[in-house]
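Notebook entry, structure prediction.
Reason for the run: the old model in the group folder had no record of what sequence produced it. Starting over properly, with the input documented here first.
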Amino acid sequence: MADRIGIGLTSQRARNRLVDQLRSMGITSEAVLDVVRTTPRHLFVDEALASRAYENTALPIGFGQTISQPYVVAAMTQVLVETGPMTRVLEIGGGCGYQSAILARVARQVYTIERIAALANRLRTRLYELKISNVRVRHGDGRLGWPAHAPFDAILVAAAAATIPTPLLEQLAVGGRAIMPVGRHGEQMLTLIRRTEDGYEEEGLQRVTFVPLLENVD
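New structure, fully documented this time:
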């Protein structure tokens, strides 16, 4: 796959500027910052948008979906990395694969579910081209999770709902964590959910804006 480096807008300097910006916004994990610095975000967006790949902004990827803002990707990843093991991680809403590629660098095994078939196929192709071999992709309803590979140490949900779906809670290992935007559009709170021996604990982290978590599969 062409790396599109020659356009002069995907240079290491642009990546370094993005990392400096993320650090100024409160991302403190050097491991996460290094992964952001070395992951080619421009390869996960349309070529026409490659010049904006290292801006700290969400960008359209088609089908009414977006590639998340780098700060949000880094913040969600940092929370999971700093709160427990990352041996077996479930991602809901694989999209274009950028968050999947980030998780692949900090987790032993990633399982990602995408409800839109065309995006799931594109995601598989992109990960293969980048030689990322520790991510398994499934086209399906993310609200149901992936019980065959549960329990998970961590679950990252890249879409918002009023509450975290019960199947995802049930697929968390005891001591596991899930991070997800909870609430309706305009009132979403990035929320960390921990599974304990006695149940679940929730902690609101910050206001965010995500696309809704839908149950139908396209």
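Summary: Residues 70-83 form the longest helix (14 residues).
The old model has been moved to the deprecated folder.
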